[in-house]
Amino acid sequence: MSELRGDLHARGRRFAIAVARFNELVTRKLLEGALAGLHANGVAEEDVDVVWVPGAFELPLVARRLARSRTFDAVICLGAVIRGETAHFELIAGQAAAGIREAAEATGVPVTFGVLTTETLEQALDRAGGKHGNKGWDAATAAIEMASLLEQLPKEAEP
After folding, report:
1. Considering the domain boundaries, does residue 122 fall inside one?
2. Domain total for the chain?
């Protein structure tokens, strides 16, 4: 029996962070957490590119483009979708999640989900460096771990 696990040794790896401008009060804190998580695990500042997009809905297209470039070992997506009084929340949150998943599947490059989906601004801030930690940090360390894990797995066979 063999058991494989990704590790958090990230020195020499390159990462892209796609971050939504909408709800920037929250997303900037997520970005700070992601950068701190990358740097704490050995990623050099010059090995990180940050790309701002208008909102969470635009994250999947940019994530796919970044992943397809083969420039990065992983792409980290950060955003905040806060429930309002319309169905907008469900539409945006669902499409962002599905599109981010599809970007990873289509490219074979890890694309991590650091998009908060909360009821209130207070809940979002609690998850962006507040009392519930920083989900940007979590998305960054997941990206490091997935890049390491995929490196250990057998390569995909050509169809």
Report:
1. yes
2. 1
Number of Cβ within 10 Å of residue 150's Cβ equals: 16
Q: Is residue 4 part of a domain?
A: no
Alpha carbons 14 and 88: distance in angstroms, whole number = 34
Q: Return the structure tokens found at 73.
A: 């070992």
pLDDT tens digit sequence for 57-90: 999 999 999 999 999 999 999 999 999 766 788 8
Residue 23 identity: N
Answer whether 144's CB lies under 8 Å from 38's CB. yes
CA angle 76, 82, 87 (to 5 degrees): 115
Please count the other Cβ atoms lying within 10 Å of the Cβ belonging to residue 122: 10
Residue in 9, 39, 88, 132 annotated catalytic? 88
88 among known catalytic residues: yes
Residues 117-156: pLDDT tens digits? 999 999 999 999 999 999 999 999 999 999 999 999 988 7
What range does the domain containing 89 cover?
A: 15-139
CATH no. for residue 110? 3.40.50.960
Query: What integer is the mean pLDDT of 37-45?
Result: 97
Pairwise CA distance, residues 26 & 23, whole Å:
6
Asked if residue 159 is part of any domain, the answer here is no
Residue 135 domain-assigned? yes
In the predicted model, what is the mean pLDDT of residues 24-45? 98
